[in-house]
Amino acid sequence: MTTSVVSIVYVNDAPAAARFYGDLLGMSPSFETSGYITFDLGPGADLGLWSGQFEDLSPDVPRTSEVCLAIDGGPDELNATFEQWNSNGVTILREPHDAGFGLTFLAADPDGNRIRVALQG
């Protein structure tokens, strides 16, 4: 039986990525090694940042993950998150828009992985 789901984001520098995600999420890692760092997102959900160093993956390997952060609140909360990230220098790929499932915006981490922010279903 599965006890949790770990979403893994491939990064070139796990400690640098952990600082980036820690700032965005407002939390500290729950587990750290030099190449693999996780954040406990709540019961049954973790975010893992993995450099691939243990399997000799080169930094030249494209990083193309996308994670979705579902936030509570309504459009005002999502727009406030967008404004905060934008003012903090987070790379914004697409401003808030209706994507058919609701309001969302798209950002990128320093490795080019996509971070979608959407309203909690």
Q: What distinguishing features does this structure have?
A:
121 residues; Glyas_Fos-R_dOase_dom; 2 domains; alpha/beta; four-stranded mixed sheet; Signal recognition particle alu RNA binding heterodimer, srp9/1; VOC_core; Glyoxalase/dOase/EhpR; single chain; 39% strand; 8 strands
Short description:
It comes from Streptomyces variegatus. Helices cover 21% and strands 39% of the residues. With 121 residues, it is an alpha/beta fold.
How would you summarize the topology of this molecule?
Blueprint (H helix, E strand, L loop, with lengths): L4 E6 L3 H12 L5 E2 L3 E7 L2 E6 L15 E6 L3 H13 L3 E8 L4 E6 L5 E6 L2
Parallel strand pairs: 1-4, 5-8
Antiparallel strand pairs: 2-3, 3-4, 6-7, 7-8
Question: Biggest sheet, strands in spatial order?
Answer: 1-4-3-2
CATH fold-level label of the largest domain? Signal recognition particle alu RNA binding heterodimer, srp9/1
Q: Briefly note the structural class of the backbone.
A: alpha/beta
Total number of distinct structural domains: 2
Beta-strand portion reads 35-45%
Please state the average pLDDT score.
88
Measured distance between first and last alpha carbons: 25 Å
Principal-axis shape equals globular
- Reading the helices and strands in chain order gives EHEEEEHEEE
Q: What's the architecture of the largest domain, going by CATH?
A: 2-Layer Sandwich
**Spans of at least 5 consecutive residues with low confidence:** none
What is the CATH level 1 assignment of the largest domain?
Alpha Beta
Rg over C-alpha atoms, rounded to the nearest angstrom:
15 Å
Please tally the β strands and state the result.
8
Largest β-sheet summary: 4 strands, mixed
The percent of residues in helical segments reads 10-25%
Number of helices: 2
Protein name: Glyoxalase
Domain VOC: 1-120
